[in-house]
Amino acid sequence: MRIDTIEDVETGLEALLQLDPRLQVIRDYAGQLPLRRNPAGFESLASIIVGQQVSIASAAAIWARFKQHIDPLTPENYLEQGAEVWKLTGLSRPKQKTFQHLSAALIGGQLDLPSLTTMPVNDAMAKLTAIHGIGPWTAEVYLLFAEGHADIFPSGDVALQEAVARAFGFDSRPSAKELSFLAKDWSPWRGIAARLFWAYYAASRGKEAAPVMSVM
Fold it and tell me: Which residue range or ranges hold the HhH-GPD domain (predicted)?
């Protein structure tokens, strides 16, 4: 199963509510679920890496400089620009190294992003997290919003942890491990459950709540 259109979101949501009727109240509060899809490829993955562990505002500023200085935005051009240009983008040294490793893997064929679309999730995750600096959250968000995988729930995402805690009346946010266990009940539509809880979080806070990929 894949999530490529808003119709896929609606189909998945209907199936999800049948799996767990408790979510109907959350759905009513959250309102319309967005598709939030971006084209698969280097640019989408790059935007997620840029946004790791920084605020949405900071990510947007760095991303703008990144696209300005790495133009065209390709793995080959990233490596060609070198350390002085990388510094101008505002990227931290660890992220500069991540892009070095990612670019080299793409150019050398060790990583083929188009193939991740039809690859089993676990295999796709393994391919991405084998790249130095790409962790589970980055891989999950990319596979969910760029490759269209339907059964992914980024349990390490703080907004999702907070949303689930609020929705179910927990005293504190569940850990990534605890949330991953809870999310098993929403398989094979965990990607829809993630969209639902992000929408719920946004509605409860009265502002946008989504992975940093939305800076594109």
Answer: 50-202
Topology of domain 42-145 in CATH is Endonuclease III; domain 1 (1.10.340)
Spelled out in words, what is the top-level CATH class assigned to the domain 6-37+151-215? Answer: mainly alpha
Q: Which two tokens stand for residue 43?
A: 């640019």
Where are the chain's structural domains? 6-37+151-215, 42-145
What distance in Å separates the CA atoms of residue 203 and residue 199, rounded to the nearest whole number? 6
- pTM for this predicted structure: 0.91
How far apart, in whole angstroms, are the C-alpha atoms of residue 77 and residue 67? 11
List, for residues 147-181, the tens digit of each pLDDT value.
Answer: 999 999 999 999 999 999 999 999 999 999 999 99
- In sequence order, the 6+-apart residues with CB closer than 8 A to the CB of 209 are 159, 163, 198, 199, 201, 202
Contact 103, 91 (CB under 8 A): no
